[in-house]
Amino acid sequence: MDFIPTFDLHTFITAPWSDGLSGSIWILVMGFLVNAACGLVGNFLILRRMALVGDAISHSLLPGIAVVFLISNSRSTGLMVTGALAAGLASVWLIEFIHKKTRVKQDAALGVTFTTFFAIGVILISVFADQVDLDLECVLYGEIGWIGFEDSWLVMGTEVPIPLLQMGVTFLVVLALVIVFYKELLVTSFDSGLATSLGIPASWIHYGLMMMLSLVIVFSFESVGAILVIAMLIMPGATGALLSDRLPHILTLSVIFGGFYSLAGIHLAEWLNCSIAGAMVVSGFGLFCLIWIASPRRGLLVLSLKRLKQRSSEVSVN
């Protein structure tokens, strides 16, 4: 068996839409919503130099979900979100507490906290495996390809998968919060001291951002899993920063990139017969490398040409 399947234009370009149009459309929309929502939140994490906090929270949500299920014996979305938010905020508080009250640096505190929380979640699910109806592989890796087979609601005459509706509402909530609290998020991300002097409650904004992050992660679980959602949080903002210095432009680019990741991931997964969520992340990395090389402002080609011109001018002067 070949490591990489033979490239076939029909399989790569037309198969996702000719063989299963409705399923591909739901995957495309769900992928866009997940990528766009994660991208919007992730930009502010990058500005705060807290990119890997998303990794910590995504792993820390598992015990909260498991505990809520054990207590309520229900998989109600509201209860699951409540448990996930509680666990996420608890992990953020513990990271800051360890960092401020000990000599442990923040990155070490982050590593200690999220591994412990995740281990507790794994233990709970292992011990109460007969009672907890949670799939660890789904939590870790997700499976966006099954979105079309989920329970659905009738919306304007169309059966729409419930997880897609939930993710759609999450994206709109995140978008609205970013628009309404843009100034507060911007100032606190760059200078919390300045924000406090301006009367902006920096700590409340911080915990609000962590709640928003937890909300995005918990609704992304079933689609892309806890591991791949980290790439969705970081990659759009990191790629957009190569093209612009202005945050509004980067936020807009992050949403646009979300659509590209979703579309390119579907086609790549069809060709390689692999995980769609994984293919979306690989597509995002491919776009990052392309922009990194060819960016008109900070691209490797532009920087190399500038160095060559500078050297030639120095040589001519000498």
What gross morphology would you assign?
globular
Q: Which architecture of the domain at 41-143 and 163-234 per CATH? A: Orthogonal Bundle
Pick out the low-confidence regions. none
* Tally of strands: 2
Summing up helix and strand content along with how strands pair, one would put the structural category as mainly alpha
Roughly how many Å apart are the termini? 60 Å
Largest sheet: spatial strand order: 1-2
Order of helices and strands: HHHHHHEEHHHHHHH
Keywords:
mainly alpha; ABC transporter involved in vitamin B12 uptake, BtuC; two-stranded antiparallel sheet; 77% helix; globular
Describe the 3D structure.
The structure is a single chain. With 318 residues, this protein is mainly alpha-helical. The chain has a domain of 175 residues: ABC transporter involved in vitamin B12 uptake, BtuC (Orthogonal Bundle), CATH 1.10.3470.10. Helices cover 77% and strands 3% of the residues. It is built from 13 helices and 2 strands, in the order ααααααββααααααα. It has a two-stranded antiparallel ribbon. α3 packs across α10. The model has no long low-confidence stretch (mean pLDDT 80).
